[in-house]
Amino acid sequence: MQVQVKLFAFFREGRFIKEDRELPEGTSAGKVVDDLGIDREEIGVLMINSRHCQFDTTLQEGDIYAIFPVIGGG
Amino acid sequence: MADKIFRVNMTDLSTSIEDVPANWAGHGGRGLTSNIVAAEVPPTCHPLGPNNKLVFAPGLLSGTTASNSGRISAGAKSPLTGTIKESNSGGTSAQRLAKIGCKALIVEGKPQDDSWYSLSITSDGVTITKEEELIGKGNFDVVTAVEKRFTDKIGILSIGQTGEMLMSSANISVKDPDSHVRSLGRGGLGAVMGSKKIKFIALDAGDGKVEIADPEAFKAANKTFTKALVDHPVSQALGTYGSNVLVNIINEAGGLPTKNFTAGQFEGHEQISGETMHDLIVERGGKPKHGCHQGCVIQCSQIYNDLKGNYKTSGFEYESIWAMGADCNIDNLDQIAEMDHILDDIGIDTIETAVAFGVAMEGGVLEFGDSNEMIRIMKEEIATGTALGRVIGNGAGNVGRTYGVTRVPVVKNQAIPAYDPRAIKGIGVTYATSTQGADHTMGYTIATEILGVGGTADPLSKEGQVELSRNLQIATAAIDSTGMCLFIAFAALDDGTCLPALIDMINARFGIKLTADDVTNLGMSILKTEHAFNIAAGFTNLDDRLPEFFETEPIAPHNAVWDFSGEELDTFWNF
Lengths: 74, 575
Hints:
The complex is a heterodimer of chains A (74) and B (575). In chain A, 9% of the residues lie in helices and 34% in strands. Chain A is built from one helix and five strands, in the order E-E-H-E-E-E. In chain A, strand 3 (43-48) and strand 4 (51-52) form a beta hairpin. The termini of chain A are far apart. In chain A, 32% of the residues are buried. In chain B, the strands form four sheets. A six-stranded mixed β-sheet of chain B has the order 2-1-6-3-4-5. Chain B is built from 23 helices and 17 strands. The chains are: A mainly beta (74), B alpha+beta (575). Chains A and B meet through strand 3, strand 4 and strand 5 of A and helix 7 and helix 8 of B.
């Protein structure tokens, strides 16, 4: 299945901003993080299709998956 | 020496230094300005008349070595909202006032002729001087000239042309350590200062120092506190990308108000994002990391240079960039930086003014996305006070009324900032119930709803949102009294050592024994004092509501509407 993965802030360094990825059915959000070499401890927010999700959320065909480090502002 | 209250009467041009009354002794910052306004300002007075008072107060820890303690509060009845108002800012003034021994500066009355004045404050008292040279000048010229008259160490509070012209979005500028300006931004306090005919206030602390009751305990607590701030990952991201790191995540969450609140995502988000801003800053030899006051360890400010590598702006905040960017459909960061610079110079709130432009665009005054016309209007109309300039300079609500626009994002006539309350509901509770009109900083539920700091809450659900907003508004009122930057809250929400260390510092500074419960009670009492002022000024629970269009116009991508009932919102005050 195809999923668009988007990275933000320093997760982009040495990686990418946006990439369409071919993933096996049933891939979890956490698995994508692991495969990118990002420490789960560094994760602040995960969103699929603009909704917050967890590491164990299963990705679906056509999902837009956004991965953020711990950030804040205001 | 003991802290004193400095009082200036602009009607008879008299000044005095008074002992601090016992019931104000435990207050600082917002708690003090709100208590003084509540005690001394008739709630039904005209905000620009002689009975309103403008109060400045450093926080309880300002002027000490406590990290991030350099916030100054200003309070009055707001000409924009008609409510009580507290606005706070970094810069050098909080530390100067504290070192002068001034716990609060109260400016009252109003000159009976058309003369302009300046105030100069030292530990000996206040000197009132007639001012002619700087009238009609912008804040950057004022800072340069005042430094020349005094020294470059002088603290400066000033108003630009919009404050002189009493526009209800005018702010008060606060000189920062680089002789640029920060802003006491919201609610039109610059117009209140203008109504008192004061162009600037110079603060000379000499070699004054703040006394610490228990220096050893203070030092130890500050060490723990500083470590909690420095270690928190949010602090680190703020130092790299500034608060503008939020553009992409709020856009992703579908809560970035776009084109005058008609969509929740902005096509040009990447061009105005914190990531893009960081790269441009580095490329042009600016500084991604910069503090707005001495002792800041988070350093969310920056030096943003133009294409040629010359200084353009600093303190380039998410809310300003969102307002001039997504809300006006502009994706050019250099144009936004130019506007940020102009608005700082003429001394007007970036959020209110840009949201007013968004409403003006909807009303057909100019096209969405036309940043050149925005810049022209700022320079040629607002700065000079033409009819159009005054329509926009009096805020988003005023523009809506003038041009018959019904989609006007204001609460209590103050513009809603950078988070759509349909897609992020907790912040809508804060906008509706805040004692100051729409203001995200009053109870920043975004931390929990979107950023996952201090727990989690579903931004599209109403569940728990009133309680979340209430708890944060209470905590914020207390933090706003300490002189601390609100960005300590991220560490305070996550790191159990942070708040106890902050309380230990207050105790060591004054030789007292506050507990965490005392601090919560302080926050509650400040909110209740502010609320009582507003009720006496004529506000009711029906003013604690969002504009109608949020209930009737779903916003993409979630197609969410605002669905809190009035009864649900009214439970906010059950404490």
